[in-house]
Amino acid sequence: NEKDRLAGLMALQKRYEGTLSTGLQLMYKVSANQREFVVNFHADKESRGEATEMAASNAPINAMSAAVRDSFDDLMDEYQQLSDFLREKQDRMTLVNALTDQGNVVLLCGFIESARKVFHDSLDGYFNVMDAYKDYDGIVATEVQKMSSDGDGTSIKGLVYSVMALGKLSKYCSTNDWDSKIHYCRFAADLCRVPFLESYGHPLSCVGFAAYVCTELGGLASFMLETDRAFIFNLAVALVEVVDVLLLCDLRIEALPVVVFLEHIHLTYTRRVDLWLSARVMRVKILLASHLFAEAASMIASVKSSLCAILDLDIEMDEDEAI
């Protein structure tokens, strides 16, 4: 019956969790408390008819009820203990994951400067460099070298969390600081090139992404993005922010790897036609503005086949479209 099936699944889940590292087990426990806090936070805001937009206020602590404020303080203590443990164990992958989640909660509650510090800590912890965001050229070169020895996709996963942190630093923590926004977004754009290095026929330069379509991110060690909707959403938001900032600063060619990454996410994971088409239109506009007319025509011509792939439609193409 249903109760027996549920009991069996819970037992299976418990055995699976027992095979995880201590750091991951601790992080999952903290993540469960985080989800509970977010639910209570939204319920507290809705009970008073207040907005729950991310970073809606610079000083929202007084707007929290006493119970929610205590829960927030307890959750921050848990994250501090978790990050200390992960640093001691040198578990960089779990550390960047945990700090990114912590930054999201802090940002949700409106503590912008505190969120900035947490996101900076996540970058420093993963790349093992103090103030990593200030001088990233050497970091990107190191990550390129790591890709050749990465056998399980962990490098790509860490880079994705870093791109998410940089996107949020730009979008929410540097609203009126354009020097910082450009710096964060150029760092993220450089990191977006790295996951493609093990993919078949990957471009060697930014302009090489003009007509490039990724079919398998990461080559043989493809990184399968998390099925968690929040993870995909946060990554897409970060990529859109990076593209928007780079375009506003007339850095169109640098934005191409980011747009290709965004297209790949919507083509392969979200399977959202509207979002994929928006990313493709963004790429075509970049190509036209850069006078890359042949590449723009190629991207327009392949729209039909890509839409058919997303929708699983079997539509015949004429000879010109098949080329």
Low-confidence stretches: 55-62, 314-323
Count every helix, treating DSSP H or I runs of 4 or more residues as helices.
14
Helix and strand sequence:
HHHHHHHHHHHHHH
Largest sheet: none
Q: Radius of gyration, Cα only, in angstroms? A: 21 Å
Beta-strand portion reads under 5%
Which class best fits the helix and strand makeup? mainly alpha
Q: Percentage of helical residues?
A: 55-70%
Describe the protein in words.
With 323 residues, the protein is mainly alpha-helical. It has helices spanning 2-18, 22-47, 66-89, 92-108, 112-127, 137-147, 154-173, 178-193, 229-248, 252-270, 273-289, 293-301, 303-311, 319-322. Helices cover 70% and strands 0% of the residues. It starts with a helix and ends with a helix. 36% of the residues are buried.
Descriptive labels:
323 residues; mainly alpha; globular
Give a nutshell description of this structure.
With 323 residues, this protein is mainly α. The protein has helices spanning 2-18, 22-47, 66-89, 92-108, 112-127, 137-147, 154-173, 178-193, 229-248, 252-270, 273-289, 293-301, 303-311, 319-322.
